[in-house]
Structures are given as structure tokens and as C-alpha cells.
Amino acid sequence: MKIGIFDSGIGGLTVLKAIRERYDKVDIVYLGDTARVPYGTKSAETVIRYSIECSNFLIDKGIDLLVVACNTASSYALNTLKNDLSIPVVGVIEPGVKKAVRLSKGDKIGVIGTTATIKSGAYQKLLDLYGKKSISKACPLFVPLAEEGITEGEIAYKIVAYYLEDIKREGVDALILGCTHYPLLKNTISKFMGPVPIIDSADAVAEEIEEIIENRGEGTLDLYFTDISPNLQNMASRILGENIYVNHINVPCSL
Ligand code: DGL
């Protein structure tokens, strides 16, 4: 079975890692749209267009399942992709919400994500459907922090505290990390929030696809990025915990 995963950049490798740890035999093709990252500050129309282009690239690779690892793309483009494609399409929002509902003892759930994800209301609406109250916050500095590898220590802690102090004061029964990059800051977020379940949508999506996945194949991994910056290979290897080879690809602007 071949799974296609796309994200706006390297953050989706957290989702890839969670999937690979669980299903070691599947073949994976990953596309990180590093030339156009961030998606989290862009309009819905642009995020949808980029998502269609990334998906078409992966469809051409012969995938059987598409995982939209990017929360921003999942917020805006999931329905379009589900309608347009003939293979199963899974986003990260529903798995994260379901896991939060399962693990929280009360009914107030915090959600953090990019400005676009929070503005879309995708998490908030779904939590509402599950009868949960939500308190949400965009944390735009978390993405560059993670990309710079500043995930622990004083600076990371202060920035985490700056964004999360309202949520902590309000008190939540679980906190959803609604952005691919945030699992990289999980330790620091956890340190600041104390004993609150922190829901990593990367793990949640890996669990969610259990029913549709067949763990068979060669276990191959093909990584494509639309831009290869000097730091990319290092960052990607660091996130995946293994030395990897990355390919450069130009995703066409209109397909
Ligand atoms: N991948 C994006 C997300 O999960 C974060 C980075 C970006 O803004 O593109 O929302």
C-alpha cells in the first residue's frame, strides 16, 4: 500500500514519523511545499489551490491513500479533496478532536494552531458537534521557533508562556496541538501547561487510519520538497530520527 502525505513544509514529517512507527511496511511518498510555506498566513482560496496541486502530484505517484498532514490545508481544503479524488482522503482535524474528546475528563478543550486554522473555526465547529466547549489561540511564532530548532530552553518557554497563558488561566481539560510543527514543542508546552493531556494530531491520525490501512509493501520512503534550503536535510533528519535523502521537485502552479 502506498500512502501520500503532504504538508506546507517539514512539519508534516511529524505525521509521517507517527505513521511509519505504526505501519512499517507501507510505502510512503511525502511532499513538503517548502517553496510556498507558510500556508498558515494565506487566504482560504490560496490554501485550497496549493492543496489541490500537492495532491495531484501525489496522485501521479500512484498513492492509495492521501493524508493531509497540514492542519491549515485540512481546515480549508479537505472537503474539496474528498469530493475531487477517488481514493480515501484523511485530514488531521477529526482524528485530533476525537482523541481529545476521548482523553479529556471535562468539557473544555483548548486548540492552538496557525492564524488561518484558528480563523477557519474548523476545530471549534467540530468540538461543538461533539458537545465540547473550545478555547482557541493562534500561535504564529511557534512555526519559526520549531523550524529554527529552538524547541526547549528559556526562549521557547517564554514564547510558549506568552501564547498559552490565557488558556492555562482559563483551565482546559485537554489541549490540541493543531499544527504540524507544534509536536516539536510538546515538551515545553507540557512543562508550561502542567498535567493536561496534550493531543498530538500526528499520533491521532496514525491511530485513525488503522481501519483503512493495509500494512504491506516494501517500506519505501520518498521525500519531495518544493525548495531545499541549506538547513532542510538536517531538520528533516532530526525530526525523523534517521538520515534521509530528499528530492527537489517543482509542483506546477496550475494543473
Ligand atoms: N503545516 C502548517 C499547519 O499544520 C504549519 C506551517 C504553515 O503555516 O504552513 O497548519
Summarize the structure.
Helix content is 45%, strand content 18%.
Unreliable stretches (pLDDT < 50, length at least 5) are none
User: What's the quaternary structure here?
Assistant: single chain
The chain-level mean pLDDT equals 94
Radius of gyration (Å): 17 Å
Sheet with the most strands: spatial strand order: 4-3-1-2-9-10
Please tell me the CATH architecture of the largest domain by its name: 3-Layer(aba) Sandwich
The percent range for strand residues is 15-25%
CATH class of the largest domain: Alpha Beta
Count of DSSP-assigned helices:
11
Describe this structure as you would to a colleague.
The chain has 255 residues and is α/β, with parallel strands linked by helices. The chain folds into two domains: 2-91 and 204-248, Rossmann fold; 93-201, 3-Layer(aba) Sandwich (Rossmann fold), CATH 3.40.50. The chain is 45% helix and 18% strand. The chain contains eleven helices and ten strands. It has helices at residues 13-22, 44-60, 71-84, 93-103, 115-120, 122-129, 142-147, 154-170, 186-193, 201-208, 232-240; strands spanning 2-7, 27-32, 65-68, 89-90, 108-113, 133-138, 174-178, 198-200, 221-225, 246-248. The strands form two sheets. A six-stranded parallel beta sheet has the order 4-3-1-2-9-10, with helices on both faces. The protein has a four-stranded parallel beta sheet with strand order 6-5-7-8, sandwiched between helices. Strand 7, helix 9 and strand 8 form a beta-alpha-beta unit. Helix 1 (13-22) packs across helix 10 and helix 4 (93-103) crosses helix 10 (201-208). The radius of gyration is 17 Å and the shape is globular. The chain starts with a strand and ends in a 7-residue tail after the last strand. The mean pLDDT is 94. D-glutamic acid (DGL) binds next to helix 3. Residues 7-9, 11, 37-40, 70-72, 113-114, 117, 143, 179-181 line the site of D-glutamic acid.
